[in-house]
């Protein structure tokens, strides 16, 4: 085993957090800003990249550069148990949804997931980039030309919105998914993009012009509420600057009442 072996427990339903139990000198790596709480003997340190590279400064810079390509921060944070007994550190979800625990050793050692899905992992898990081989997939895949890649043999935790469905695809079995609803796939899944057939369907169907086609064998994780969809609904409900006082949501009406209008 190259990764630290960590135990964990997930709490909550719609706004979950994961509590990681660390033995002495065990370490977990997480995205900056995901910490919820930690015991007193946990030491926190900011590092370049994901901390998995052992190739000196150049290796660390290369790892950090890969994170920039996925839109992430240059830095990640490690949490190491410096005490004599077991200690705990917890990481919270950034928005309503589920935390998905993934044992990479049982999943072929590699997971490809959407950008911003990674939450935390045992030290030794590599958080890199996955270039889509097909240009059309990259340009129209909803997640861009680059997706995140998690490699190793330890535990990793991925976050996604709404309810999560894990689906096993047999060899040759196909599944069509809205591009924003795709969370993660195992390395054996063939991922491509299809154009929605029919002009009226594409223009007035309300589901976008493209969807993802997935072909097995492998495992697929699908989310019911992509963050982009949630954000668009929240934005649409916000009061519009310069609009009439009759426009907007309930929040707008309360604002008008308090403002004396």
Summarize the structure.
Helices cover 18% and strands 42% of the residues.
How big is the Rg? 21 Å
What form results from the Cα inertia axes?
Answer: globular
What is the CATH class?
A: Alpha Beta
| SSE sequence, one letter per element | EEEEEHEEEEEEHEEEEEEHEEHH
Describe this structure in words.
The protein has helices at 56-69, 135-140, 199-204, 227-237, 250-258; strands at 7-11, 17-22, 27-31, 35-38, 42-48, 75-81, 87-92, 97-103, 110-113, 118-122, 126-131, 146-151, 155-161, 164-169, 174-178, 182-186, 190-195, 210-215, 218-223. By secondary structure, it is of the alpha+beta class. It has a single domain, classed as Double-stranded beta-helix, CATH 3.60.160. The protein has a six-stranded antiparallel beta sheet with strand order 5-6-3-10-13-8. Strand 1 and strand 2 form a beta hairpin. The model is unreliable at 135-144, 244-248 and 257-261 (pLDDT under 50).
Write the layout of secondary structure elements.
Blueprint: E1 7-11, E2 17-22, E3 27-31, E4 35-38, E5 42-48, H1 56-69, E6 75-81, E7 87-92, E8 97-103, E9 110-113, E10 118-122, E11 126-131, H2 135-140, E12 146-151, E13 155-161, E14 164-169, E15 174-178, E16 182-186, E17 190-195, H3 199-204, E18 210-215, E19 218-223, H4 227-237, H5 250-258
Antiparallel strand pairs: 1-2, 2-7, 3-6, 3-10, 4-7, 5-6, 8-13, 9-12, 9-16, 10-13, 11-12, 14-19, 15-18, 16-19, 17-18
Please tag this protein with its features.
single chain, globular, alpha+beta, disordered C terminus, 6-stranded antiparallel β-sheet
């Amino acid at each position: 085993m190259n990764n630290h072996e960590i135990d964990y427990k997930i709490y909550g339903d719609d706004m979950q957090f994961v509590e990681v139990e660390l033995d002495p000198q065990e370490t977990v790596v997480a995205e900056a800003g995901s910490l919820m709480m930690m015991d007193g003997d946990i030491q926190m340190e900011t590092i370049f990249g994901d901390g998995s590279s052992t190739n000196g400064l150049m290796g660390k810079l290369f790892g950090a550069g890969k994170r920039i390509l996925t839109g992430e921060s240059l830095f990640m944070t490690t949490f190491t148990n410096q005490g004599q007994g077991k200690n705990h550190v917890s990481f919270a979800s950034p928005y309503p949804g589920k935390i998905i625990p993934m044992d990479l050793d049982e999943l072929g050692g590699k997971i490809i997931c959407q950008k911003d899905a990674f939450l935390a992992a045992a030290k030794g898990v590599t958080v890199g980039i996955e270039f889509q081989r097909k240009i059309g997939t990259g340009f129209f895949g909803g997640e861009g030309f680059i997706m995140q890649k998690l490699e190793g043999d330890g535990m990793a935790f991925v976050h996604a919105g709404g309810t999560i469905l894990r689906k096993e695809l047999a060899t040759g079995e196909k599944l069509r998914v809205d591009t924003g609803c795709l969370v993660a796939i195992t390395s054996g899944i063939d991922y491509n993009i299809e154009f929605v057939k029919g002009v009226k369907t594409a223009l007035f169907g309300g589901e976008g012009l493209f969807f993802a086609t997935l072909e097995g064998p492998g495992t697929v994780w699908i989310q019911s509420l992509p963050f982009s969809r949630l954000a668009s609904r929240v934005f649409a409900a916000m009061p519009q600057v310069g609009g009439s006082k009759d426009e907007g949501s309930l929040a707008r009406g309360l604002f008008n009442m308090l403002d004396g209008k």
